[in-house]
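Good day; I would like, with your permission, to put a structural problem before you. The record follows directly beneath this note:
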Amino acid sequence: MDEVFAALDAAKLPLDIVSKADSDRRPPEDRPELSRLFEDAHETKERRCRSGICWTLIHSANIVSGRSQAARAEFRRLHADADAELCISVFTEAEVRVGIANHALSQSQRSAIEGLFANLEILPWGSAEAQIYGEARAKLQAKEIGFSQIYLLIGVRAASSGAVLITHDRYFDAIAEAADIDATVDWAIDL
């Protein structure tokens, strides 16, 4: 994995490789509708493991772009943990690929990103996720909470696999509760 990150660093990818259109980085106090949703929610949930492997679903452009060195360091640490399984959803892959298409990236930059994808399991989406999606979307709509469709799809994938969701984006707060995601963690503590 060291060579993958060396290639990503050398590629000097744009910090905005993933679109900011769906991001909501306002602090929680500026979003009272989310505060109401979480008044009685648990701060963290116990991590579930599948077959002894703890799944960690990554949704963080900060790891790809290198914008957060703290996120990259935590990724490397967990990648070395034999009990951890790092993965992304097919929708996170799609988001990064939109970023690739929107930027004039060189072949070496594209190869660096492909190298990262080759070292991660990319989780598909199916009927189990569709069921969770329907229930979670209905909960969010009933509470009149705005959400990003693609983020809901990513969050649902984390919920269906029992994964801890790694993200710096505040949109996942509401989605985590509605979709019953075990936990969300922000590795980008240096941003």
Remarks:
- The first strand starts at residue 54 and ends at 58.
